[in-house]
């Protein structure tokens, strides 16, 4: 073997590496340590590092994940886990950019500091790369029988050495791309050694045989704040905490993104606020926001970090689906997407498939490659995805291939249709809130695709805004509809039907907020414009007249409302016909306001006829039919037949429970009406019992501030006091 003067050794002591000394050698850089072709010291000599281990990142953070790793691979023998099993290998698994390699390198440096005998760093991007690294390690360690002519044979000899040596060793398999590449090349779980791997994959093949998957996520908010504080403080005054926290949140606390953002700011002498302004500019790509020279030896900008994972996922069965699915989830809420949205008919049509099971298979593939998190047990939030993966996906579908605006529009409308398809009526639990968040994310991600300058605003925008009021959040609904009106006004103009529809929503929620007179004035102005733009017979014009009459009655003008509905009914019968839903609805409101104006006897006959027609046109279980039956019961009570009202409403509650379920607003309202007439019929105790159950359910379903909850509470207090005055409370 040539002497060391001609071939300087590249086996470095752990003490020198950890002390920060610069290692001088002619064929290596200051911090890249390559395996030499020389026999290693005998077992028991100083620690050896073979292979190339990356530099420690600037302002490296001691993360909570590092503590979990140490605990999992603790001690010199086989680690004992809390579950009682044994472990010889740890697999750091997570999306690209979360810092898996840096965590593994930090662990390796600590191993050297603990005088672990041999540390072998393998870049495991392919099966051949693993074989070559093991063969080189065998040669450098002077493993018996290693002659350098048979790489695979020498790699096997290295594995045999790990099984029999008494020296403590650590093998790091960094960046495993395919579990099949390392299937036959895992060193054995042995008391003398440890294996630490990093990968974006989550395949079951990576676990078992003494191996434990250790999930690695993004920085915690505290870790992200600490990193930015340390990194940016190197060259300038400290940044405001709110700016640092805002930037960290906007970058999703992703270590790689924070590293590149900090480098960009340092290179450009830019403040955090200035960088955030650039980041918010959707005309700039993530590549535009990367520094000219990437920090910490990272080979790719954040936008390209996931390209290989996407390509591999797309080539995995079902082939070609993963990429399209990633496109679809890239325009929805990163914090939680209902799986039902992705398996809805419109989503399946966009994906070009017909079976929801294929979508579930595709989601599992994306999860295995750490491109999304798919948790079927997380009800209504089964799919999560990092916001920067979303942005990178939207910006590019391949090298130098920008997103297609036409495809974006098709995708946006497919996603919007999917959201509408799964929107519950009534909203249950948190699903409505989740769907609103997805609608907001979709609108933000796709620009004007849901409200183009030519065409119509998508119905999901109206649903998301108005649904806030339907759950009792009237102020929030008013704000959302105001924003929607501004969007329609800007994109579609003042006379577009969607702009007029948004004005109708504004007028309605104004009245619901307590300004009934203001609602009347707003609907009167809207009617003037509807007549001018759409004409007297347009459905939107007739609907506006309907709303105007309703709010006129709400101001106390019962007779005026009844007269207005009589006139409207004449025009609906002429323009729409007797069986049109708007005609039937107008008949229902005419009867109600005629009843309120004092004609209870005449109203009962009108409503009975209405129920008959609803049964014929819509069937017995349609909400409008059930609503007409509710009116019939109330009219009986107002006509003096309280017992008849109770009987009719008890039957109706039974049918509402069967058809709509216990939590539907109409079910709750009918139970309230039943309690009112129970009390008026003399059954005060029954009314209190009904109201106690009703208030409990209203609080659970609607919340304490919903108008129906407040009305039920007031009625309960009234009937309870009445019961108390009777000495029965």
UniProtKB/TrEMBL annotation:
Coiled coil: none annotated. InterPro entries: DUF7779, NB-ARC, NLR-like, P-loop_NTPase, TPR-like_helical_dom_sf. Residues 322-396 form the DUF7779 domain. It holds the Pfam family TPR_10. SUPFAM superfamilies: P-loop containing nucleoside triphosphate hydrolases, TPR-like. Residues 92-210 form the NB-ARC domain. It comes from the Bacteria. One of its GO terms (molecular function) is ADP binding. This is Tetratricopeptide repeat protein. It comes from Actinomadura barringtoniae.
